Amino acid sequence: MSEHCVFCGHKHLISTNTRYIYQKNERMLVVEHVPCLECTFCGEHYFDAVVLERIENDYQAIADQQKQPQRIMQVAVEEFSSLAL
Ligand SMILES: [Zn+2]
Fold first, then answer.
1. Which listed residue, of 2, 22, 26, 67, carries a Cα 20 to 30 Å from 59's Cα?
2. How far is the CA of 5 from the centre of ligand 1 (A)?
3. Is the pLDDT of residue 2 over 60?
4. Are 36 and 19 in contact (CB under 8 A)?
5. Sign, CA torsion 13/30/32/58
């Protein structure tokens, strides 16, 4: 992982964790407390390739019904043009 933010060039990245949303076709997997580096200036998150691979594998296991997720979250979907002013 690089030691500066590719997005804004800032040099202060801290180890933290965040919610990662993996999306494929019409399905999503939300993973809580994923370890990452966060740019203290712009808030961009950086994930290790191994971490992303584990998330993708988990998504596939759930999609193939080899695994049950810990919980199911209901997601509302809107088209921006249909939003109230
Ligand atoms: Zn940044």
1. 2
2. 5
3. no
4. no
5. negative
